[in-house]
Automatic annotation (TrEMBL):
Entries under Gene3D superfamilies matching the protein: PK beta-barrel domain-like
Name of protein: Uncharacterized protein
Pfam families in UniProt: MOSC
GO molecular function: catalytic activity; molybdenum ion binding; pyridoxal phosphate binding
Top-level taxon of origin: Eukaryota
Higher taxonomy: Eukaryota, Metazoa, Ecdysozoa, Arthropoda, Hexapoda
SUPFAM superfamilies from the UniProt entry: PK beta-barrel domain-like
């Protein structure tokens, strides 16, 4: 497969990354009955280690053999209010909380959490691979 095929089976980008610390920060603002898990957000890359929202400042990310470029912030939709067992939050959580403290600066004023990555160099990503962020925006 050459690079022209990278990401053709996705909605917005080949990779959707969520940071565990970011989910933990959100959960610290939600009530006990409203806690969320990674499964509410359905990423295909989940990272542990960086501080909450550090991914907002990433420009390029290397994971395993794969080199990527951040292409979009992830605006959260109603799907994040559906739990892993299929129940929808009557309170619209976590959307309501994200819209209070993580509202997008772009034209669509949704809560944002996570990033979309465009693949620049294809390869394999394996569980436990180190993540390398060579440069950050606003450093």
């Amino acid at each position: 497969m050459d690079n022209s095929m990278a990401g053709i089976f996705s909605d917005l980008a080949a990779l959707h990354l969520i940071n565990k610390s970011t989910i933990d920060d959100l959960n610290s603002r939600l009530g006990a009955e409203q806690k969320v898990s990674i499964k509410n957000f359905r990423p295909n890359v989940f990272v542990e280690g960086p501080e909450a929202f550090d991914e907002d400042n990433w420009e390029h990310v290397k994971i395993g053999d794969v080199v990527t470029k951040v292409c979009l912030e992830c605006l959260r939709c109603i799907q994040s209010t559906v739990s892993e067992n299929g129940e929808m939050s009557k309170e619209r959580e976590p959307l309501k909380t994200l819209e209070k403290y993580r509202k997008s600066d772009g034209p669509f004023k949704y809560g944002r959490m996570g990033i979309y990555l465009r693949v620049l160099k294809i390869g394999k990503i394996r569980k436990g691979d180190a993540i390398y962020v060579p440069e950050k925006i606003n450093q």
